[in-house]
Amino acid sequence: MQHAITQIKSLNLDPTRPLLVTDADEVLLDFADIFKRYLASRDLYMAEEGYALYGNIRDKNTDKLLPKEQMPVLLEEFFDYSVDQQDLVPGARENLDALSAHCQIVVLTNLPHQFGERRRSLFRKHDIHHPIVTNSGPKGPAVAEISSGISHPVVFIDDISRHITSVAEHVPDSFRLHYVADEALGKLVEKAGDSHHRCEDWDHIRELVMGHIGDLK
C-alpha cells in the first residue's frame, strides 16, 4: 500500500470535479485472451470453473491443478510477457474520452509495481493519458485515499467483487459498477453484491456514469 500512497500523493486532482476510478485488466485492457495464450505457451490452461485464477489453472498434460504457491511466480512472468502487448477493450478509449469532459479519471490497477512504467507506456500507445496508480491488495483504502477531499461524486469500476466490496466499506457514498469485459468469464460470476449495476459494455458504463453525475448535480 505504501507504493500506492506515494503515487496517490503525486496526483493533482480537482476537489470540485467528479472522480472516476477504474480498474485496468478486464475493464480497460483485454486480460483473458492474452492470459490464455500465455498459459498455452506453458502447457497450462484455465479451467474456468469459477471467476478466480487461484485454483483454476491446470496442467494440459496431467490435468492437475497448478499448486497455489506457484501462482505468484506465474503471474509475475505473465505480466512480464504481456504488459506491453494488451489490447484495449472495445469502446474503452472512446467512452473515457467522452467521460473526461465531465469527470477526472484515475486508473487503479493491481499490478506488481515494477511493471508500472511499462503499463503507463502501453496506455500512452493506446492514446490514454489518465494517471495510473499501481496497487496491491484490497482497493478500498487506495480509493479512499484518492478520493479524499473530493466533494463531488466518486465512481468506481472493477471486475472483481471483493474490490467492489472493499470500496463499499471504505468509500460508502461511492457509485460502484461491476464490469467483466470477456463474455465467457463474465458468465462465471454473478453481479457483485456491493455494486449498484452490472455493466454490459463501455457504452452502458458511460450512460450509467453520466446519469449518476447528472442526478447529483
UniProtKB/TrEMBL annotation:
<dbReference type="InterPro" id="IPR036412">
    <property type="entry name" value="HAD-like_sf"/>
</dbReference>
<protein>
    <recommendedName>
        <fullName>HAD family hydrolase</fullName>
    </recommendedName>
</protein>
